[in-house]
Amino acid sequence: MPDATGLELIAHELGDTVVETVYFRERATLQIDPAAIRATLEHLRGQGYTLLVSVHGVDYYPEEPRLGVYYELLDMSRVDRIAVKLRVPLDSPEVDSVTDAWPTANHQEREIYDMFGVVFRGHPDLRRILMPEDYEGHPQRRDFPIGGEPVIFTYDEAKWLESRA
Amino acid sequence: MSPTPTDSSTMSEYRRREQSITLSPVEDPSGGAETTDELLTLNFGPHHPATHGVLRLLVTLEAEVVRDVKPIIGYVHTGIEKTAEDKAYWKVIPIVERMDYLAYYFNAMAYVGAVETLLEVEVPGRAQYLRVIHLELNRIASHLIWLGTSALDLGSTSIFLYCLRERELILDLFEMSSGARMHTRYFQVGGVAEDIPPGFEAKLREFVAVMPKRADEYGAILNANEILLQRLRGTCALDAETLLSLGVTGPLLRAAGNPWDLRKAAPYSSYGDFEFKIPVGTVGDNYDRYAVRLAEIYESVKIIEQAMDGLPEGPHITGDRKVALPPRHELATSMEALIHHFKLVTEGFRVPPGEVYYPIESPRGELACFVRSDGSSKPARVHMRDPSFVNLQALAPMTRGSYIADMIATTAMLDPILGGIDR
User: Fold this and answer.
1) Residue B74 touches partner A, C-beta closer than 8 Å
2) Nearest to B393 among A51, A79, A106 (CB)
3) Which of A5, A53, B64, B386 is deepest in the core (most CB within 10 A)?
């Protein structure tokens, strides 16, 4: 992790696109403007953070902007990590996809779309990945209830679809 | 009993497409006069022994050559991350263990590591060493299942039985220390659930003595198996740079020559105290993937031996009563202990708000747990960065242009665990 000062230096280089910097438990997080995600990741790649380890979503219910997307970057030669975070509002949960520049984001962006409903603009194949394709709702959202999920077997499928219609 | 016929008019578009496959023979309209080059789309799985779980692959073939592979996953999605948000922090441990079901100690380690970072709890040295012993035993057990089932796919049947024989020894050890053979819930926030019982050390030493010899035997069987070698050598290689762009870590990356291992690069749980080597491959083909994992078994044995030799005396769990249960005998005499016990069992402990990401080296690569706390006694978000999920994306680039038989070998060498992929 860059230390608190190092994080501020990176934030200074990035300029106005940085919304907030958080240094917590030796973990450096840059919160940025969603429009600048591609440029930010490219800039950090130039700084040595060449591996995008993980992309995952968070729901900040009931705060707005509600949905968050995390990009965990790793510099393998300095063994240094930095997290980039962005937040999008629920009424327009859209952000640019980074899949063409970072192929590893492909499945992970699909998972966030599936679980939180964040739409990644320019993703080559933005479909649900873990839930069935005809599923309604985004189950990892905090206001999505636990339980009561019908288990669909072949014999009760027609009944289930009828109840839904 | 015949299944109730489903009226297709009530089905959704997706279900209709799913059920639209016909198995009746189709006449060639040209009557066999024209032979044309065409692509065949083959559905492979989800219930197929060579997919190592419920993985479905849509394979586009040109004769026997794979042109494209699309993995379709989600068949064992059980919403573990969602369930975790509804449980007190310590009750989440048994359910995250069920993600990657061959590497349960690793799931627990990533999770408790993240929670400990949030809480800033100091883990006693003895607990750290005990964790290392169990993690490395689990790594061997996971590699044994991988080796046995992969060899089964590649035409070497007997090795599966030998691998399971050694895995039994490990599961017996797990049973001794925790009472359970799988999904042990042994790692707790702040340490481990119980100290190791008398007799554990002797049994562990027996295992440590026998395991390298048995691994030699595996090598002797497999490296003399011409069929297996032909299917592994020089097939489906992928260079380290492409692997990194796909986010692949672990033995697959090391097979391509990049010695990245979090146990060395960023030691956690006192891994820095032990001497071990990181096996790396050269070209990153299927043989290197196999050889790297087989060599890792020896290194894990070395770590276990050193951890047992250097096992420090002291408590096995933190003395912080706000986090760890008080010892059983104190409950009869101490009112304070009783209050702490009641508080922990009913509400659980509260965790300061914040977000952490805790990566460890699992048998399949970087396994990391992201935990967001909102200050209550239940996590607001638990996400596992599962290496199998990310590594699966490398299957298509690895197998494009190779034979379908090599795709089976590559799927085996990828070592995907569907419980971890689907969570």
Assistant:
1) yes
2) A106
3) B386
Minimum mean pLDDT among A57-61, A93-97, B20-24, B126-130: which range? Answer: B20-24
CB contact under 8 A, A108 and B14: no
Kindly report, residue by residue over B258-287, the tens digit of the pLDDT.
999 999 999 998 999 999 999 999 998 999
The answer to whether residues B356 and B370 touch, using CB atoms and an 8 Å cutoff, is: yes
d(CA A40, CA B223): 48
pLDDT in tens, A62-94: 888 899 999 999 999 988 999 999 999 999 899
What phi, psi does A22 have (nearest 5°)?
Answer: -125, 130
More confident call, B295 vs B23: B295
Distances (CA, A) of B190 to A27, B250, B313: 20, 27, 16
Smallest Cβ–Cβ distance between B266 and the set A79, A104, A161 belongs to A79
Q: How close does chain A come to B390, measured CA to CA in Å? A: 7
Chain A residues with CB under 8 Å of B392 CB are 107
ipTM associated with this complex = 0.89
B22, amino acid identity? T
Residue A20 forms beta bridges with which residues?
A31
Q: Report pLDDT for B31.
A: 65
Residue B58 burial (C-beta neighbours within 10 Å; 0-12, 13-18, 19+) = middle
pLDDT of residue B36: 61
Of A59, A140, A155, which has the smallest distance from its Cβ to B3's Cβ?
Answer: A155
Contacts with B86 from chain A: Cβ below 8 Å: 146
Q: Which of B85, B357, B423 sits opposite A72 (nearest CB)?
A: B357
pTM: 0.89
Closest CA to B235 of B163, B290, B294, B175: B290
Residues of chain B contacting residue A103, judged by C-beta atoms under 8 Å apart: 245-247, 393
| Chain A residues lying within 8 Å of B390, measured CB to CB | 54, 104, 107-108
Up-side HSE of residue B273: CA atoms within 13 Å toward CB?
19
Say whether B4 and A29 touch across the interface (CB within 8 A). Answer: no
Cα–Cα distances (Å) from B70 to B55, B319, B392, in that order, read 11, 50, 10
* Amino acid, res. B327: P
Is residue B185 within 8 Å of residue B325, measured between CB atoms? no
Alpha-carbon gap: A40 to the closest alpha carbon of chain B (Å): 17
For the record, the structure tokens of B321 come out as 């009563």
Alpha helices in B2-46 (DSSP H): 13-18
Cβ distance A131 to B357 less than 8 Å, yes or no, reads: no
d(CA B395, CA B400): 8
| A73, A84 Cβ separation under 8 angstroms | yes
pLDDT band at residue B338, thresholds of 50, 70 and 90?
very high
